[in-house]
Amino acid sequence: MRLPWFKFVIVLLVIWGVAASVIFWARSSKPTPDKVLHFLETHPLADASPSDQAKLVDKVADQLNHLTYEERREVRMSNKLDAFFRALSSPEQSRFLDLTLPQGFKQMMDALNKMTHEKRKEFVDKALADMKKHEDDEIPPEKRQLDSNGEKIVNQGFKSFYSDASAETKMDVAPLIEQLQRNLQGAR
Q1: Are 176 and 165 within 8 A, CB to CB?
Q2: pTM of this structure
C-alpha cells in the first residue's frame, strides 16, 4: 500500500524539479541592465569580424528590446551603449536603430501614458528647461544638419508619438513637441 504513494511523491518531486529548473533557466536568461552592460564590455566590436559585428548588433538590440523602459534608460545613461553605437559603421548604426527604435519609443509612449498629469507636466517642464538651457549654445553650421540616422530617430519618435500616445498625453506633451519641431526646423 505504501508503494503507490511513494511513486506519487517521486513523480511529484520530479515534476517540481523540472518546473524549478525551467523557471531558473528563464530567469537567468532574461536580460538585465547589468547583463547588457557586461556583454558590451566583454564583446568589443574592434575584436570582431564583420559577420560577428552584425551578430553583436543583433544580440545587443535583442537584449535592449527585452528590457523594461526603466532598465533601458539605465543602460542608455551609461556611456557604454554610446561607445558601442559610435563604434558601428553607418549602415550598422542604421540597422541598430531599425531594430531598437520602434520598441524603445513604444515603451516611452507607454510610460508617458501611464504617468499622471502632474508627472507628465514635470517631465515636460524639465525637458523644456534642458532645451532652453542649450538653446543659445553655438553650434557650427555643419553640425546643425541631421544625418540620416538623426532623421530616422526624429521620424520614428514622431510616428510613435502620434500613433501610441493617448489624447491626454498628446495634450500634456504638446509644448515639448512644438519646441522640438521649432528646433528641428533650424536643423533641417
Answers
A1: no
A2: 0.71
